[in-house]
């Protein structure tokens, strides 16, 4: 490959990795360490020199330190700074949290963008899914989202989890490590049991924090349906 084309591709891939990897799972000082090795693979790479657009297709993978990005296709426009990743997009951070997307678009600052059909899997198996949303700095703002700490059963994937929270709007604040809900509905075994105009709790990466614990639902012959909602106080 000619040296000129190699330089264009190398710069484009670094920008894509910086935008996709650091945007979701920020690592201080990464932008200043652009001389470190960036590993990437793809089945096919297309370069449009005049338009200054680079497109990678087929099992595209990026790795930098412990951050990994996978997608079917990634396009970088060097003139506008826009980055598109689409098709089975997966972003993984050093803690093992995985973000699954249909597609993501970033602006030229590589700090804000729009996402479609998001599925976020935390390290402990908790899940956060949404129809769409946007990324603003250290926050991911989602529309029509649902969160559950319950692991989905592979044998019965359509079975409702023990409990989950649905909301019109959900904000994942990575800096505060907290999840905020607006117009939320608490569901037990798929049945709505409470409407909450506002709700928040620590994200699953927080080990200890005061708040309500996982509700427990039982059926008793003497009492009928029983809902237990314990509260934990972190001393």
Principal-axes geometry comes out as elongated
The largest pleated sheet is described as:
12 strands, antiparallel
Number of helices: 1
Helix-strand topology string: HEEEEEEEEEEEEEEEE
- The total beta strand count reads 16
> Regions with pLDDT < 50 over 5+ consecutive residues?
1-36
The overall pLDDT average reads 76
How much helicity do the residues have?
Answer: under 10%
Q: What's the Cα radius of gyration? A: 21 Å
Class per helix and strand makeup: mainly beta
Q: How far from one another are the termini?
A: 62 Å
Strand content: over 45%
What this model shows, in words?
24% of the residues are buried. With 235 residues, this protein is mainly β. It has one helix at 3-24, and strands spanning 39-41, 44-48, 53-64, 67-77, 83-92, 98-106, 112-121, 127-136, 139-148, 163-173, 178-188, 191-202, 211-212, 216-220, 224-228, 231-232. It has one helix and 16 strands. The strands form three sheets. Strands 1, 2, 3, 4, 5, 6, 7, 8, 9, 10, 11 and 12 form a twelve-stranded antiparallel sheet that branches. A two-stranded antiparallel ribbon has the order 13-16. It has a two-stranded antiparallel sheet with strand order 14-15.
């Amino acid at each position: 490959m000619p040296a000129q084309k190699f330089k264009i591709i190398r710069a484009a891939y670094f920008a894509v990795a910086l935008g996709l990897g650091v945007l979701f799972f920020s690592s201080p000082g990464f932008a200043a360490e652009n001389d470190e090795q960036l590993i990437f693979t793809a089945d096919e790479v297309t370069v449009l020199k005049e338009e200054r657009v680079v497109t990678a297709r087929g099992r595209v993978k990026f790795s930098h330190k412990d951050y990994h990005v996978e997608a079917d296709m990634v396009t970088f426009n060097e003139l506008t700074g826009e980055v598109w990743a689409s098709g089975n997009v997966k972003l993984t951070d050093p803690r093992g949290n995985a973000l699954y997307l249909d597609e993501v678009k970033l602006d030229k600052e590589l700090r804000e963008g729009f996402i479609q059909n998001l599925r976020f899997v935390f390290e402990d198996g908790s899940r956060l899914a949404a129809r769409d949303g946007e990324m603003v700095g250290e926050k991911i703002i989602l529309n029509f989202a649902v969160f559950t700490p319950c692991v989905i059963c592979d044998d019965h994937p359509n079975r409702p989890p023990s409990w989950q929270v649905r909301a019109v709007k959900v904000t994942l604040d990575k800096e505060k490590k907290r999840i905020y809900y607006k117009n939320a509905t608490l569901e037990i075994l798929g049945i709505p049991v409470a409407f909450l105009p506002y709700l928040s709790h620590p994200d699953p990466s927080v080990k200890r924090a005061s708040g309500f614990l996982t509700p427990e639902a039982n059926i008793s012959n003497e009492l009928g349906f029983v809902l237990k909602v314990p509260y934990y106080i972190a001393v």
